[in-house]
Structures are given as C-alpha cells and as structure tokens.
Amino acid sequence: MHLQRSHIYGVMGEFGEPEELIHAVEKIRAAGYRRVNAYSPFPVEGLSEALGLKRNMVPFICMLGGLAGGVGGFFFQYWAAAITYPQNIGGRPLNSWPAFIPVTFELTILGASLAAVFGMLALNKLPQPHHPVFNVHRFSHASSDRFFVCIEAKDPKFRLEECARILQEVHAHHITEVSDD
User: What is the pLDDT of residues 40-54, one digit of tens each?
Assistant: First the structure.
C-alpha cells in the first residue's frame, strides 16, 4: 500500500475552455478516479454528467418543509379556533377550514423556502470560509475566466505522479499540487 503525504489535498489542473474541462473530467473518470471536483466561472452544460453527480435531495427536502409548514399551520389554526378558544359566532362551525386556507398556503411557502435554503446549505457543507483549493494562487481566476479540475487525495486510486501525468495527458495548462494547510 502506497501512503501519501498527509498535507496534500489533491492535484489541480487548469484549463482555458469549458470543452477542455469536460474532456478532462471524462478522461479522469474513465481512468477510474471518483473523488474529482471541477470549478468554473459559470455553469457548464454536461459537466454534472461528466462528474457523475447524482440528483440532489433539495427538492425532496423542500417538499417536506412545505408539507410541515402547511400541515402545522392548518392544525395550529384548528387548535386555536376549535380546541383552545372555541367561540360560537353566528352558529358557524368551530372548524371553519375555508378561513384557514390563506395562512396555510403562506406557511407552506415559508416552510418550503426555509427548508430549501437550509437544506442546500447543509448539503453543500456551507458555510465553509476556507477550502484547500484557495491555497492555489491561480485559483483566483476560477471566478472570472479559467476552469479547474482537482483530483482529491482521498481517492483510493490517488498517486501524485499518476494524477499529474493524467492531467498532462488531457493538456492542462498548469498543474498544481494542492496543500491541505
């Protein structure tokens, strides 16, 4: 078993065009690497598929938040109007559900939106004020005009020399060792 130095986060390659990035990710994944991340200044069509990303859980979390908000809002109103403070006004039923619809709708939207925001933050492991890729000097171009791919050292197949070689084969402009410090 080949042990890697513990201070290495991975190896990063820089590309100038989105097509180069997608080609590189496809070649790296075809070589058997699974712990691969790509960074681009704008969404790149087909990059998620090339990375092998599966669908996320945000829609499901959003639906659960909406259901919890709507059901909770409805039953809170029912509890207040029919159980805790029942008032017979003009012979109307205590469970006057049509009057509960606007608040129920609003709490459904509120619950769904809060669940979506906090679910997205949790699934993206945010906030994360520092990430090892920020140690790479050229990574500042990732938000303007460059594309990066990083093979993480956590990948079972990771060998520093082999990763650098595969990045050279896919014509990375710059290849950088990413430290974990």
Answer: 999 999 999 999 999
**Alpha-carbon distance 177 to 96, whole Å?**
66
* Nearest CA-CA partner of 130 in 174, 54, 181: 181
Condensed to tens digits (0 to 9), the pLDDT of residues 140-176 reads 999 999 999 999 999 999 999 999 999 999 999 999 9
Residues 37 and 82: their CA atoms lie apart, in Å, by: 55
pLDDT at residue 130 tops 80:
yes
Structure token digits, residue 36: 């691969």
Q: What is the mean pLDDT of the segment spanning 114-137?
A: 94
| Burial class of residue 135 (count of CB atoms within 10 Å of its CB; 0-12, 13-18, 19+) | middle
Q: For residue 168, give Cα distances in angstroms to 11, 65, 124, 154, 158.
A: 11, 46, 30, 21, 15
Strand 8-15 and strand 36-39: pairing? unpaired
Q: Hey, is 106 helix, strand or coil?
A: helix
What's the pLDDT score for residue 1?
45
111 and 63 Cβ atoms separated by less than 8 Å: no
> How far is the C-alpha of 143 from the C-alpha of 40, rounded, in Å?
7
